[in-house]
């Protein structure tokens, strides 16, 4: 681990990442609710649109807040950010599928624990790592490498 990953900066980074995530979640939930209710859209269309908005809010918050010192350029960082968030969503779905269909835990409580509890925790770790390393390149910069992430 780099010397720059000390307690105070790490705590600030984690808190900022969490705050941006909560804001993005609120935007996703609010838009989904509006699109489903007054908007009258079907649930999948509403969720796709609200997910895209939530990802955009999260990217903007992280780019202008949490990782503003990295100065991402062009469409590539957003595309990678979106891919990381899709991977996080798939982790949540996988946890739910394993619990519900693989283990036979079919109650609403079990689905909530596996999808919104365990799945969300694992997805958040993946999103934090992916956002920090693949999108904004914090670890590479701390190690002194600024070139390609492949080497």
Explain this structure.
- It is a single chain.
- The protein has 151 residues and is mostly helical.
- The protein has helices at 7-36, 43-66, 76-102, 108-135, 138-142.
- It is globular and about 45 Å long.
- The model is unreliable at 145-151 (pLDDT under 50).
Structural class label: mainly alpha
Please describe the biggest sheet, giving its number of strands, its sense, and whether it closes into a barrel.
none
Task: Evaluate the radius of gyration.
Answer: 17 Å
Proportion of residues in extended strands: under 5%
Residue share in helix: over 70%
Mean pLDDT: 87
Shape: globular
Low-confidence stretches: 145-151
Total count of helical runs of at least 4 residues: 5
Topology as H/E string?
A: HHHHH
Q: How far is the N terminus from the C terminus?
A: 18 Å
* DSSP E strands, number: 0
Secondary structure: elements and pairs:
Layout: H1 7-36, H2 43-66, H3 76-102, H4 108-135, H5 138-142
Task: Based on the model shown, name its key terms.
single chain; 151 residues; mainly alpha; 75% helix; 0% strand; globular; disordered C terminus
Quick rundown:
The protein is an all-alpha fold and 151 residues long.
């Amino acid at each position: 681990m780099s010397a720059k990953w000390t307690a105070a900066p790490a705590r600030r980074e984690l808190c900022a990442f969490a705050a941006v995530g909560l804001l993005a979640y609120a935007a996703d939930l609010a838009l989904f609710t509006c699109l489903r209710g007054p908007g009258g859209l079907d649930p999948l269309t509403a969720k796709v649109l609200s997910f895209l908005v939530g990802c955009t809010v999260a990217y903007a918050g992280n780019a202008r807040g949490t990782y503003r010192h990295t100065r991402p350029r062009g469409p590539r960082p957003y595309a990678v950010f979106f891919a990381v968030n899709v991977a996080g969503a798939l982790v949540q779905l996988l946890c739910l599928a394993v619990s519900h269909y693989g283990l036979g835990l079919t109650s609403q409580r079990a689905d909530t624990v596996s999808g919104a509890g365990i799945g969300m925790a694992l997805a958040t770790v993946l999103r934090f790592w992916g956002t920090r390393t693949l999108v904004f390149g914090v670890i590479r910069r701390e190690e002194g490498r600024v070139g390609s992430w492949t080497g």
